[in-house]
Structure formats: C-alpha cells, structure tokens
Amino acid sequence: MKTIQIKRVYEAPSKSDGYRILVDRIWPRGVSKEEAQLDDWNKDLAPTTKLRKWFDHDPDKFDDFSIKYKKELKDKTDALKELCQKAKDQTVTLLYGAKDIEHNQAVVLKDVLEHFK
C-alpha cells in the first residue's frame, strides 16, 4: 500500500497529495470546489449527522466518537475497499474541514483504512 495521509481541505493542494477525497458530510465553509481540487467527495464515509453533532469536535469525546464512527464504517466495506485499492497504486489524501488536526473523522478513517482487510 502506498501512503494514506490526512490534510485540512483549507491547506493548498500539492502534487504529493495524489488522490484527494473529501470525507466530510457537509461542504467546508469558504472553500470553492475549484480551490479544493477534489478527485472525490464521499459523504457516505463521513460520520452520520447525528454522530457529528453529538461529537461537536469535543476532544473529551474523541475516544467514544472513534468507537461509534468505526461501528458506522463497518457498513461501508465497499467504499473502504475502493479507497484501499486506490491506495495500492497512489497516495490517497483524506481531506477534512475541522480545525483540530488530532481529533477528527479523518484520523479515525485513516486508522481504519490502514488496518482494513
């Protein structure tokens, strides 16, 4: 497997990003589709609205959020498999809009992808 990396969608795109996929359910404020330079926007891989609102980017809830989000991802095996296939041939960059670089869904999704079988 090549590299799976995470990056804020607000950071400038670079050639080293490879396949750029937004993994947020809602479009990030202040970023145009042209600026984002996405290859894909997979809302289905994002946490459900209910889970996202419950979490509310509270670092104290991150461990519980991770567990709940991983449970949601168990129903998304086709999408996970597809991303893993892409990561075999190229770098995949998971894009997210949250300000917190340590406590967000892309961190959890990256871990799931790296351990996906």
Q: Outline of this structure?
A:
The protein has 117 residues and is an alpha/beta fold.
Description:
By secondary structure, the protein is α/β, with parallel strands linked by helices. It has one domain (4-114). Helices cover 39% and strands 14% of the residues. It is built from five helices and four strands. It has helices spanning 33-36, 49-55, 62-73, 77-89, 105-114, and strands at residues 4-8, 19-22, 40-41, 92-96. A four-stranded parallel beta sheet has the order 1-4-2-3. Strand 2 (19-22), helix 1 (33-36) and strand 3 (40-41) form a beta-alpha-beta unit. Helix 3 (62-73) crosses helix 5. The longest helix has 13 residues, at 77-89. The radius of gyration is 13 Å and the shape is globular. The two termini are 12 Å apart. The model has no long low-confidence stretch (mean pLDDT 95).
